[in-house]
Amino acid sequence: MNKGQLIDAVAEKASVTKKQADAVLSAGFEVIMETVSGGEKVTLVGFGSWEARERKARECRNPKTGEKMEIPATTIPAFSAGKQFRDAVSHQ
To answer: What tens-digit pLDDT sequence spans the chain (92 residues)?
Structure first.
């Protein structure tokens, strides 16, 4: 499912226009991204949570040349599914 299909499904399920569903979903995604990039955690009970996680610097090898490379430390977004979500997916 892509974003357009998600908007269609939400619009139908919530009995709103596609334009309204798009506006709400886009605003929700923006708020989640802004909050997580600001270092805070977003939790939707039963669905899951998003947070920023630190990834340590590490050494690897270039597969073509075999040369050692250093991958710098970085911060990445991470999603953890909630219990209801995990249960719904595992019972399919």
So the answer is: 999 999 999 999 999 999 999 999 999 999 999 999 999 999 999 999 999 999 999 999 989 998 999 999 999 999 999 999 999 999 86
Domain spans in the chain, listed from the N-terminal domain onward? 1-40, 41-92
Phi-psi region of 66 (alpha: psi -120 to 50; beta: other; left: phi over 0): left
Distance CA 56, CA 59 (A): 10
Distance CA 18, CA 70 (A): 46
**Gyration radius (Cα) of the chain, Å:** 19
Tell me the CATH class for 41-92: few secondary structures
